[in-house]
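Methods: holo model generation. Sequences were used as deposited, without trimming of termini or removal of tags, and paired with ligand SMILES retrieved from the corresponding compound records. Each pair was processed once, and we did not select among multiple samples. The sequence and zinc ion SMILES for this entry were:
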Amino acid sequence: MSRYQCERCQMEIGFQGVCWKCSSREKRESYEQLTTDQLQLKLQTIIERIEEVEKWKEIYDDFNGLLAYHDINLAEVAEAALQKNIYYPGTLYRDATKVVQEEIISRLLQPDCPSQDASSMMLCLAASGGDRVVEVFAQLEKEPLPWQSNLYVGPAIYAQESSWGFNRSGQAVQLHYDTCFAMLPDGDGDAAAAAGRLRQDDYCSDCGCQMIDILRLDGRDDRFSFLNVTGVLAIPVCPNCCMMHETNYVRYDAYGNCTLMKQESSGEKNYVSAADLQAMDQMKLTLTATSLPKYYACGGDEVITIGGVPEWIQDAQFDSCPDCEERMTFFAAVPWSTLYDSAEGTLYIEHCPNCRTIGMHHQQT
Ligand SMILES: [Zn+2]
Ligand SMILES: [Zn+2]
Ligand SMILES: [Zn+2]
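and the model returned the structure below.
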């Protein structure tokens, strides 16, 4: 195979041009730089050509770009989508008006609603959220309609795709923070947050790989006040085993000191090289100075996000707290490609601020 270098970062790639990582970054930056007038123009184009959202091309990208990088109201998009019976992606309905929401609810509550449509409509309703949707989902959980027998999971699990759900007493709970920060590959770093730092003299007892702090966050920094973490949180993980284990749990104290809750040993082989570890340790990422739109992670550029709404690679997965057994709140997502080349997948980090526990799990395509 012929070898080329990315025209931006000089990384070796199999084609002439710009690597995937650099082009997603440029795409993000171009959306971030849109002026108010340009935004309005894009919004109008999306509304006029809403059918094309299903082609996964320009209109889909523009919608996602606006959703992720600009906190603008998208109620008109929801209206246009409903008129054309378009239910995917559910986030089209993020800002749906009460009228639009009621129309979808009335379609959904038809006993003969086709299961496929019902499934998509539940995702739309989950994205729009609010008391009325909570009420409808709770009712469907209690008294299922005929079409629900063709779906694998109930409405409460659909809610989780939009990062909310029901606790063990049946009350609606938000499973994410509305505040979001990112760690971006420019600037000089920021003392308040680092990712992928090596832990001195600490090796995984399972595979022998050197342990890392996947994140080090200074909870005393004002930007992190929404996380309710006091002290400096340094979250340990084996970068090799965490890609294979189900969920890793960590406990932290009032000062941020973390202890890994031991997994059963499974004798993993170590696939993370010394060069990968060095790359992670030296990677310079800078925490954004101000908070970002909460859907920042869904924009398509792989960056580390702290808070906000997670962009899942697979289905949404909110693990239960090992102490109180309630679902944990999404805390941060670390795409491994932000730390070293050739890495795939994302580590999702959740926590229970009440019990001071953390759960981490890996997803990839
Ligand atoms: Zn590149
Ligand atoms: Zn390991
Ligand atoms: Zn808990």
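The mean pLDDT is 94.
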